[in-house]
Amino acid sequence: TRTIKLAVIPGDGIGPEVIAEANRVLDAVLAGGDVVLDRTEFSLGAERYLATGETLPEAEQAAIAEHDAILFGAIGGVPGDPRLRDANIERGLLLKLRFDFEHYANLRPCTLFPGVTSTLRDPGHVDFLVVREGTEGPYAGNGGTLRGGTPHEVATEVSVNTAFGVERVVRYAFETAAARPRQKLTWVHKTNVLVHAGAIWQRVVQAVAAEYPQIEVDYMHVDAATIFMVQDPSRFDVIVTDNLFGDILTDLAGAIGGGIGLAASGNINPDGTFPSMFEPVHGSAPDIAGQQKADPTAAILSAAIMLDHLGLGAEASRIRDAVRADLATRGSAPRATAQVGDAILAELSRS
Ligand code: NAD
Ligand code: IPM
Ligand code: MN
User: Fold this and answer.
1) Which of 68, 237, 242, 247 is catalytic?
2) Which one, 14, 195, 275, 324, has the greatest CB density within 10 A?
3) Helix (H) or strand (E) holding 166
4) Which residues hold NAD(+) (predicted)?
5) Fold agreement between 1-103+266-351 and 118-257
6) CB of 281 closer than 6 angstroms to any ligand 2 atom
7) Is 321 touching ligand 2 by the criterion CB < 6 Å?
8) With a threshold of 0.80, does the pTM exceed it?
Protein backbone atom coordinates (compact mmCIF):
# COMPACT_ATOMS: atom_id res chain seq x y z
CA THR A 1 0.00 0.00 0.00
CA ARG A 2 1.21 3.46 -0.89
CA THR A 3 0.07 6.24 1.41
CA ILE A 4 -0.12 9.73 -0.03
CA LYS A 5 -0.17 12.54 2.47
CA LEU A 6 -2.56 15.13 1.10
CA ALA A 7 -2.96 18.60 2.56
CA VAL A 8 -6.40 19.97 1.77
CA ILE A 9 -7.08 23.70 1.89
CA PRO A 10 -10.74 24.18 0.95
CA GLY A 11 -10.63 27.94 1.59
CA ASP A 12 -13.52 30.35 1.22
CA GLY A 13 -16.74 30.78 -0.71
CA ILE A 14 -17.21 28.06 -3.28
CA GLY A 15 -13.80 26.57 -2.39
CA PRO A 16 -15.19 24.06 0.16
CA GLU A 17 -18.14 23.24 -2.15
CA VAL A 18 -15.96 22.28 -5.11
CA ILE A 19 -13.31 20.56 -3.02
CA ALA A 20 -15.97 18.32 -1.45
CA GLU A 21 -16.76 17.00 -4.94
CA ALA A 22 -13.09 16.62 -5.87
CA ASN A 23 -12.60 14.58 -2.70
CA ARG A 24 -15.52 12.30 -3.51
CA VAL A 25 -14.12 11.69 -6.98
CA LEU A 26 -10.64 11.01 -5.61
CA ASP A 27 -12.04 8.51 -3.12
CA ALA A 28 -14.01 6.76 -5.85
CA VAL A 29 -11.15 6.50 -8.30
CA LEU A 30 -8.76 5.17 -5.67
CA ALA A 31 -11.26 2.79 -4.02
CA GLY A 32 -10.12 -0.80 -3.95
CA GLY A 33 -6.62 0.07 -5.18
CA ASP A 34 -3.42 0.06 -3.22
CA VAL A 35 -3.13 3.84 -2.91
CA VAL A 36 -4.46 5.45 0.25
CA LEU A 37 -4.96 9.18 0.76
CA ASP A 38 -4.06 10.41 4.20
CA ARG A 39 -5.72 13.82 4.30
CA THR A 40 -5.08 16.73 6.64
CA GLU A 41 -7.39 19.67 6.31
CA PHE A 42 -6.10 23.19 6.93
CA SER A 43 -8.64 25.87 7.56
CA LEU A 44 -7.07 28.92 5.95
CA GLY A 45 -8.43 31.88 4.05
CA ALA A 46 -10.46 35.03 4.51
CA GLU A 47 -12.87 33.49 7.00
CA ARG A 48 -10.04 32.27 9.18
CA TYR A 49 -8.37 35.66 8.94
CA LEU A 50 -11.53 37.51 9.91
CA ALA A 51 -12.07 35.17 12.85
CA THR A 52 -8.51 35.01 14.19
CA GLY A 53 -6.35 37.59 12.41
CA GLU A 54 -4.14 34.79 11.11
CA THR A 55 -3.22 34.30 7.45
CA LEU A 56 -0.65 31.50 7.32
CA PRO A 57 1.00 30.74 10.64
CA GLU A 58 4.54 29.43 10.24
CA ALA A 59 3.78 26.18 12.03
CA GLU A 60 0.94 25.45 9.65
CA GLN A 61 3.07 26.19 6.61
CA ALA A 62 5.71 23.83 8.01
CA ALA A 63 3.04 21.16 8.50
CA ILE A 64 1.75 21.63 4.95
CA ALA A 65 5.31 21.26 3.65
CA GLU A 66 5.41 17.74 5.10
CA HIS A 67 2.73 16.54 2.68
CA ASP A 68 3.10 14.93 -0.74
CA ALA A 69 0.66 17.31 -2.42
CA ILE A 70 -1.79 20.10 -1.71
CA LEU A 71 -5.37 20.28 -2.94
CA PHE A 72 -6.52 23.88 -2.81
CA GLY A 73 -10.03 25.26 -3.34
CA ALA A 74 -10.05 29.03 -3.49
CA ILE A 75 -9.54 31.83 -1.03
CA GLY A 76 -10.64 35.41 -0.75
CA GLY A 77 -13.63 37.50 0.08
CA VAL A 78 -15.69 39.96 -1.89
CA PRO A 79 -13.21 41.95 -4.00
CA GLY A 80 -12.58 45.26 -2.26
CA ASP A 81 -13.88 44.26 1.19
CA PRO A 82 -12.18 46.84 3.43
CA ARG A 83 -11.78 44.34 6.29
CA LEU A 84 -9.44 42.33 4.10
CA ARG A 85 -7.47 45.17 2.55
CA ASP A 86 -4.58 45.21 5.01
CA ALA A 87 -4.22 41.47 5.28
CA ASN A 88 -4.03 40.76 1.54
CA ILE A 89 -4.47 37.06 2.05
CA GLU A 90 -3.98 36.41 -1.68
CA ARG A 91 -0.41 37.50 -1.22
CA GLY A 92 0.07 36.26 2.34
CA LEU A 93 -1.40 32.81 1.76
CA LEU A 94 -1.81 31.72 -1.85
CA LEU A 95 1.20 33.49 -3.37
CA LYS A 96 3.26 32.73 -0.28
CA LEU A 97 2.70 29.01 -0.80
CA ARG A 98 3.47 29.27 -4.53
CA PHE A 99 6.64 31.27 -3.88
CA ASP A 100 7.97 29.45 -0.82
CA PHE A 101 7.26 26.03 -2.30
CA GLU A 102 8.90 27.04 -5.58
CA HIS A 103 5.87 26.36 -7.75
CA TYR A 104 7.65 27.73 -10.75
CA ALA A 105 5.66 25.85 -13.37
CA ASN A 106 2.00 26.76 -13.14
CA LEU A 107 0.25 24.42 -15.58
CA ARG A 108 -3.06 25.63 -16.93
CA PRO A 109 -4.44 23.42 -19.68
CA CYS A 110 -7.20 24.63 -21.96
CA THR A 111 -9.15 21.91 -23.72
CA LEU A 112 -12.54 22.37 -25.29
CA PHE A 113 -14.21 19.04 -24.56
CA PRO A 114 -16.78 17.66 -27.00
CA GLY A 115 -20.27 18.88 -26.19
CA VAL A 116 -19.05 21.99 -24.39
CA THR A 117 -20.05 25.38 -25.71
CA SER A 118 -17.18 27.81 -26.01
CA THR A 119 -17.68 31.55 -25.79
CA LEU A 120 -16.26 31.54 -29.31
CA ARG A 121 -18.70 30.96 -32.14
CA ASP A 122 -16.24 28.91 -34.17
CA PRO A 123 -13.47 27.85 -31.82
CA GLY A 124 -11.90 25.10 -33.92
CA HIS A 125 -9.58 22.65 -32.21
CA VAL A 126 -8.76 23.96 -28.74
CA ASP A 127 -6.17 21.97 -26.83
CA PHE A 128 -3.29 23.96 -25.46
CA LEU A 129 -1.37 24.26 -22.23
CA VAL A 130 -0.21 27.48 -20.64
CA VAL A 131 2.95 27.13 -18.56
CA ARG A 132 2.79 30.21 -16.41
CA GLU A 133 5.88 31.26 -14.47
CA GLY A 134 4.87 31.07 -10.81
CA THR A 135 7.52 32.58 -8.60
CA GLU A 136 8.62 35.95 -9.91
CA GLY A 137 7.82 38.68 -12.45
CA PRO A 138 5.41 41.43 -11.39
CA TYR A 139 4.13 39.14 -8.61
CA ALA A 140 7.44 39.30 -6.75
CA GLY A 141 6.08 41.87 -4.31
CA ASN A 142 8.94 44.25 -4.94
CA GLY A 143 7.18 47.55 -4.55
CA GLY A 144 6.24 50.28 -2.22
CA THR A 145 4.65 53.60 -1.63
CA LEU A 146 6.15 57.03 -1.07
CA ARG A 147 4.25 60.03 0.30
CA GLY A 148 1.29 57.73 0.87
CA GLY A 149 -2.14 59.33 0.84
CA THR A 150 -0.92 62.66 -0.54
CA PRO A 151 -1.52 64.01 -4.02
CA HIS A 152 2.15 63.24 -4.63
CA GLU A 153 1.89 59.58 -3.73
CA VAL A 154 4.17 57.29 -5.70
CA ALA A 155 3.53 53.56 -5.99
CA THR A 156 5.88 51.01 -7.54
CA GLU A 157 5.43 47.33 -8.37
CA VAL A 158 8.75 46.20 -9.76
CA SER A 159 8.82 43.09 -11.88
CA VAL A 160 11.65 40.83 -10.76
CA ASN A 161 13.04 38.47 -13.36
CA THR A 162 16.05 36.27 -12.83
CA ALA A 163 17.92 34.32 -15.46
CA PHE A 164 17.65 31.32 -13.15
CA GLY A 165 13.90 31.72 -12.70
CA VAL A 166 13.21 32.27 -16.37
CA GLU A 167 15.43 29.41 -17.47
CA ARG A 168 13.86 26.83 -15.19
CA VAL A 169 10.34 27.51 -16.39
CA VAL A 170 11.35 27.83 -20.04
CA ARG A 171 13.20 24.53 -19.81
CA TYR A 172 10.17 22.91 -18.22
CA ALA A 173 7.98 24.23 -21.04
CA PHE A 174 10.30 22.86 -23.73
CA GLU A 175 10.32 19.46 -22.01
CA THR A 176 6.53 19.55 -21.87
CA ALA A 177 6.25 20.56 -25.53
CA ALA A 178 8.67 17.80 -26.50
CA ALA A 179 6.32 15.24 -24.89
CA ARG A 180 3.30 16.41 -26.88
CA PRO A 181 2.49 15.45 -30.46
CA ARG A 182 2.58 18.90 -32.01
CA GLN A 183 6.09 19.85 -30.89
CA LYS A 184 5.25 23.51 -30.75
CA LEU A 185 6.06 26.20 -28.21
CA THR A 186 4.85 29.79 -28.18
CA TRP A 187 6.49 32.17 -25.78
CA VAL A 188 4.56 35.26 -24.88
CA HIS A 189 5.92 38.49 -23.45
CA LYS A 190 5.97 42.18 -24.14
CA THR A 191 9.56 42.58 -25.23
CA ASN A 192 8.83 45.76 -27.14
CA VAL A 193 8.07 47.59 -23.90
CA LEU A 194 9.42 45.49 -21.03
CA VAL A 195 12.85 45.44 -22.62
CA HIS A 196 14.92 44.34 -19.64
CA ALA A 197 12.88 41.33 -18.60
CA GLY A 198 12.20 40.73 -22.27
CA ALA A 199 15.91 40.48 -22.98
CA ILE A 200 16.35 37.72 -20.40
CA TRP A 201 13.36 35.79 -21.77
CA GLN A 202 14.59 36.23 -25.34
CA ARG A 203 18.11 35.07 -24.53
CA VAL A 204 16.95 32.11 -22.46
CA VAL A 205 14.38 30.92 -24.98
CA GLN A 206 16.92 31.13 -27.77
CA ALA A 207 19.52 29.19 -25.81
CA VAL A 208 17.16 26.44 -24.67
CA ALA A 209 15.54 26.20 -28.11
CA ALA A 210 18.91 25.22 -29.54
CA GLU A 211 18.69 22.05 -27.44
CA TYR A 212 15.28 21.21 -28.91
CA PRO A 213 15.71 21.59 -32.68
CA GLN A 214 12.59 19.51 -33.33
CA ILE A 215 10.35 22.06 -31.61
CA GLU A 216 8.82 24.88 -33.59
CA VAL A 217 9.23 28.05 -31.57
CA ASP A 218 7.04 31.05 -32.01
CA TYR A 219 6.94 34.43 -30.23
CA MET A 220 4.04 36.80 -29.68
CA HIS A 221 3.54 39.99 -27.75
CA VAL A 222 0.91 39.40 -25.09
CA ASP A 223 -1.57 41.86 -26.56
CA ALA A 224 -1.46 40.10 -29.90
CA ALA A 225 -1.68 36.75 -28.11
CA THR A 226 -5.14 37.72 -26.83
CA ILE A 227 -6.25 38.35 -30.43
CA PHE A 228 -4.94 35.02 -31.65
CA MET A 229 -6.39 33.20 -28.66
CA VAL A 230 -9.83 34.48 -29.53
CA GLN A 231 -9.56 34.33 -33.32
CA ASP A 232 -7.68 31.08 -33.76
CA PRO A 233 -6.85 29.19 -30.56
CA SER A 234 -5.91 26.15 -32.60
CA ARG A 235 -2.57 27.73 -33.35
CA PHE A 236 -1.44 27.17 -29.76
CA ASP A 237 0.06 24.03 -28.26
CA VAL A 238 2.30 24.95 -25.33
CA ILE A 239 2.53 28.58 -24.25
CA VAL A 240 5.18 29.74 -21.82
CA THR A 241 4.87 33.15 -20.25
CA ASP A 242 5.46 35.48 -17.36
CA ASN A 243 3.46 35.28 -14.13
CA LEU A 244 1.08 38.20 -14.78
CA PHE A 245 0.58 37.58 -18.49
CA GLY A 246 -0.13 33.96 -17.64
CA ASP A 247 -2.73 34.94 -15.07
CA ILE A 248 -4.64 37.07 -17.54
CA LEU A 249 -4.30 34.73 -20.51
CA THR A 250 -5.61 31.79 -18.52
CA ASP A 251 -8.85 33.48 -17.49
CA LEU A 252 -9.32 34.20 -21.19
CA ALA A 253 -8.43 30.60 -21.97
CA GLY A 254 -10.96 29.51 -19.34
CA ALA A 255 -13.73 31.34 -21.16
CA ILE A 256 -12.66 29.86 -24.48
CA GLY A 257 -12.55 26.36 -23.00
CA GLY A 258 -16.18 26.51 -21.96
CA GLY A 259 -16.07 28.57 -18.81
CA ILE A 260 -14.00 29.25 -15.75
CA GLY A 261 -15.82 26.43 -13.94
CA LEU A 262 -13.90 23.96 -16.10
CA ALA A 263 -10.42 25.48 -15.86
CA ALA A 264 -7.97 23.40 -13.81
CA SER A 265 -4.39 24.02 -12.77
CA GLY A 266 -1.35 22.63 -11.07
CA ASN A 267 1.33 24.68 -9.35
CA ILE A 268 4.27 22.41 -9.87
CA ASN A 269 7.57 22.22 -8.04
CA PRO A 270 9.26 19.96 -10.59
CA ASP A 271 12.29 19.43 -8.35
CA GLY A 272 10.10 17.68 -5.77
CA THR A 273 11.63 19.64 -2.92
CA PHE A 274 8.21 20.89 -1.86
CA PRO A 275 4.68 19.65 -2.34
CA SER A 276 3.02 20.81 -5.54
CA MET A 277 -0.41 22.41 -5.25
CA PHE A 278 -3.49 21.76 -7.36
CA GLU A 279 -6.36 24.20 -7.65
CA PRO A 280 -9.04 25.43 -9.99
CA VAL A 281 -8.10 28.63 -11.83
CA HIS A 282 -11.17 30.39 -10.45
CA GLY A 283 -11.54 32.19 -7.16
CA SER A 284 -13.94 31.93 -4.25
CA ALA A 285 -16.83 33.41 -6.26
CA PRO A 286 -18.59 35.18 -3.38
CA ASP A 287 -21.45 36.02 -5.77
CA ILE A 288 -22.57 32.38 -5.93
CA ALA A 289 -21.08 30.95 -2.72
CA GLY A 290 -23.22 28.79 -0.46
CA GLN A 291 -25.82 28.17 -3.16
CA GLN A 292 -24.51 24.96 -4.74
CA LYS A 293 -24.21 26.86 -8.01
CA ALA A 294 -20.48 26.41 -8.57
CA ASP A 295 -19.27 23.97 -11.16
CA PRO A 296 -16.85 21.60 -9.38
CA THR A 297 -15.41 20.30 -12.65
CA ALA A 298 -12.36 22.59 -12.49
CA ALA A 299 -11.53 21.28 -9.02
CA ILE A 300 -12.09 17.68 -10.14
CA LEU A 301 -9.83 18.14 -13.17
CA SER A 302 -7.25 19.75 -10.88
CA ALA A 303 -7.34 16.57 -8.78
CA ALA A 304 -6.64 14.65 -12.00
CA ILE A 305 -3.58 16.81 -12.69
CA MET A 306 -2.51 15.99 -9.14
CA LEU A 307 -2.80 12.25 -9.73
CA ASP A 308 -0.74 12.62 -12.92
CA HIS A 309 1.90 14.45 -10.94
CA LEU A 310 1.91 11.71 -8.29
CA GLY A 311 2.52 9.07 -10.94
CA LEU A 312 -1.08 7.83 -10.99
CA GLY A 313 -1.68 8.47 -14.67
CA ALA A 314 -4.23 5.69 -15.14
CA GLU A 315 -6.42 7.03 -12.34
CA ALA A 316 -6.04 10.58 -13.69
CA SER A 317 -7.19 9.40 -17.13
CA ARG A 318 -10.21 7.70 -15.61
CA ILE A 319 -11.24 10.99 -14.01
CA ARG A 320 -10.74 12.91 -17.24
CA ASP A 321 -12.69 10.32 -19.21
CA ALA A 322 -15.54 10.49 -16.71
CA VAL A 323 -15.56 14.30 -16.94
CA ARG A 324 -15.44 14.09 -20.72
CA ALA A 325 -18.38 11.68 -20.76
CA ASP A 326 -20.37 13.88 -18.41
CA LEU A 327 -19.64 17.03 -20.41
CA ALA A 328 -20.67 15.32 -23.64
CA THR A 329 -24.17 14.74 -22.27
CA ARG A 330 -24.50 17.53 -19.75
CA GLY A 331 -26.69 19.92 -21.72
CA SER A 332 -27.26 23.48 -20.62
CA ALA A 333 -29.76 23.08 -17.77
CA PRO A 334 -28.16 24.33 -14.54
CA ARG A 335 -27.10 21.65 -12.08
CA ALA A 336 -26.19 21.86 -8.44
CA THR A 337 -22.54 21.43 -7.48
CA ALA A 338 -23.19 18.04 -5.90
CA GLN A 339 -25.24 16.91 -8.90
CA VAL A 340 -22.26 17.47 -11.16
CA GLY A 341 -20.20 15.45 -8.70
CA ASP A 342 -22.87 12.71 -8.72
CA ALA A 343 -22.87 12.61 -12.52
CA ILE A 344 -19.10 12.32 -12.74
CA LEU A 345 -19.13 9.61 -10.06
CA ALA A 346 -21.76 7.75 -12.07
CA GLU A 347 -19.57 7.93 -15.18
CA LEU A 348 -16.63 6.67 -13.13
CA SER A 349 -18.59 3.70 -11.86
CA ARG A 350 -19.33 2.72 -15.46
CA SER A 351 -15.62 2.76 -16.40
P1 NAD B 1 -13.82 34.44 -9.30
O2 NAD B 1 -13.08 33.50 -10.16
O3 NAD B 1 -14.03 34.04 -7.89
O4 NAD B 1 -15.24 34.76 -9.96
C5 NAD B 1 -15.38 35.34 -11.26
C6 NAD B 1 -16.74 34.96 -11.85
O7 NAD B 1 -16.72 33.55 -12.22
C8 NAD B 1 -17.90 35.10 -10.86
O9 NAD B 1 -19.05 35.54 -11.52
C10 NAD B 1 -18.12 33.68 -10.35
O11 NAD B 1 -19.44 33.41 -9.93
C12 NAD B 1 -17.75 32.84 -11.57
N13 NAD B 1 -17.21 31.53 -11.19
C14 NAD B 1 -16.01 31.29 -10.62
N15 NAD B 1 -15.85 29.99 -10.39
C16 NAD B 1 -16.96 29.37 -10.82
C17 NAD B 1 -17.40 28.01 -10.84
N18 NAD B 1 -16.64 26.99 -10.38
N19 NAD B 1 -18.61 27.74 -11.36
C20 NAD B 1 -19.38 28.72 -11.84
N21 NAD B 1 -19.03 30.03 -11.84
C22 NAD B 1 -17.83 30.35 -11.34
O23 NAD B 1 -13.03 35.84 -9.37
P24 NAD B 1 -13.23 37.21 -8.55
O25 NAD B 1 -14.67 37.50 -8.40
O26 NAD B 1 -12.35 38.17 -9.20
O27 NAD B 1 -12.60 36.92 -7.14
C28 NAD B 1 -13.34 36.53 -5.98
C29 NAD B 1 -12.34 36.29 -4.84
O30 NAD B 1 -11.53 35.16 -5.15
C31 NAD B 1 -11.37 37.45 -4.64
O32 NAD B 1 -11.17 37.58 -3.24
C33 NAD B 1 -10.11 36.99 -5.33
O34 NAD B 1 -8.95 37.58 -4.82
C35 NAD B 1 -10.15 35.52 -5.07
N36 NAD B 1 -9.42 34.68 -6.02
C37 NAD B 1 -8.82 33.58 -5.49
C38 NAD B 1 -8.21 32.68 -6.33
C39 NAD B 1 -7.59 31.49 -5.73
O40 NAD B 1 -7.79 31.21 -4.57
N41 NAD B 1 -6.84 30.72 -6.47
C42 NAD B 1 -8.23 32.87 -7.71
C43 NAD B 1 -8.89 34.02 -8.22
C44 NAD B 1 -9.50 34.90 -7.36
C1 IPM C 1 -5.11 32.87 -9.94
C2 IPM C 1 -5.53 34.05 -9.09
C3 IPM C 1 -4.35 34.51 -8.23
C4 IPM C 1 -3.24 34.97 -9.17
C5 IPM C 1 -4.67 35.63 -7.21
C6 IPM C 1 -5.86 35.29 -6.36
C7 IPM C 1 -3.48 35.95 -6.36
O8 IPM C 1 -6.02 35.09 -9.88
O9 IPM C 1 -4.73 31.83 -9.38
O10 IPM C 1 -5.21 32.96 -11.16
O11 IPM C 1 -3.24 36.13 -9.60
O12 IPM C 1 -2.38 34.16 -9.49
MN1 MN D 1 -6.22 34.56 -11.99
Assistant:
1) 247
2) 14
3) helix 163-178
4) 283-295
5) yes
6) yes
7) no
8) yes
